[in-house]
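>> received
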Amino acid sequence: MEALDLSIVWAVIIAFSIMMYVLMDGFDLGVGILFPFAPDEEVRDLMMNSVAPIWDGNETWLILTGTGLLAAFPLVYSIFLPALYVGVFLMLIGLIFRGVAFEFRFKANQSRFLWNIAFTAGSFLAAFAQGAVVGTYIQGFDTQDRVFVGGAFDWLTPFTVLTGLGLVAGYALLGATWLVMKTEGEVQEWAYRKVIPLLLCVLAVFVIISLWTPFVDETVRERWFDHIRLIWLLPAFAMLCAAQIVISVKRRHDALPFIATMGMFIFTFFGLLVSRWPYMVPPEYTLWDAASAPESQLFLLIGMILVIPVVLIYTAWTYWVFRGKVRLGEGYH
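>> returned
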C-alpha cells in the first residue's frame, strides 16, 4: 500500500465521477435547454418523459464528486467555494428549479407554462454555471498562502462566459441526440434537424476556446506546444467524433449520433485534464498539495470502492428497464 499513491487514485475516481455526471446529466439538461423550441406541448411531454425516470439518478455522480473532493482534497473546497460561491449557488438553484418542474409540470394545468419556463431556465442556468466553472478552472485562481484572495465575481469573465455558453450548446447537442435515440416519427425528425446546427455551434466555440486558451494561461500554452504530438491527438479524435455525428445523422442512425457526441465530450475532457495535470487548484497547487492525510484517503477509499459499483449497477439496471423508444401519450405522469 505504501507504493500506491492514493492521491492519484482519488484523482482518477473524481475525474471518472465528473465525466459520468457530464455524460449522464448533460443530456437531460440538454433536453430542458431545447424545451422552448419544441413544436407543441405534446412534444414537450414526450421530451420530459424521455428523461423523467432517470434524471435524479444521474445526479448521484455530482454528489459523489462533491463528497470525494471534500474527503480527498480539502484544499480544493477551501479555495473553490469562496472563488465560485456565486456560480455554484446559481448551478444549485438551476438544478432545484429543474427538479421541481419535473414534478409540478405534470400536475399543472393553467400554470403549466410557468413550469416550462422553470424547466428551461433551470437547465440553462445549471449548464451555463458548470461551463463557467470549467472556464474558471482553466483561468486559474488568485491565491495566497493556500487562501483565495480574489473577488466574488472573478469567475465571470468574457472567457468563462464563452465556456459557459459552449457547455450550454454541448448539452443541447447531447439532448438532441438523446431524443434522436429515444423517439420516433415526426419528433425524431425534429430532433435530427437540431443536431447539425448545434454541432456547428459547439465546434465554433471549441475553436475559439482552443485559440484563446494559450493566451489565458502560460503553462497551458507551453504544454500544448511542447507536447504537441500527444495532446493534439485528443482534439483530433474529438473532430473524428464530430464527423461521425454528421455521417450518422445523414444516414438516420438512431444511437450512433448520441454515442459519437459522448465520445466528443470524453476526448475534450481528457484534453482538459492533460492540459492542467497535475494541478487541482491552478496555477499553484497540485493534487498532492491539496490532498488530505493518507490515512483519511485510505479510510474513505474503502467506502468509495463499495459505493461506485453499486451506483454503476443500479444505473445500468435503470437504463435497461427504461430502454427503447418513448411514445406520445406514454410515460411518467
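>> The radius of gyration is 20 Å.
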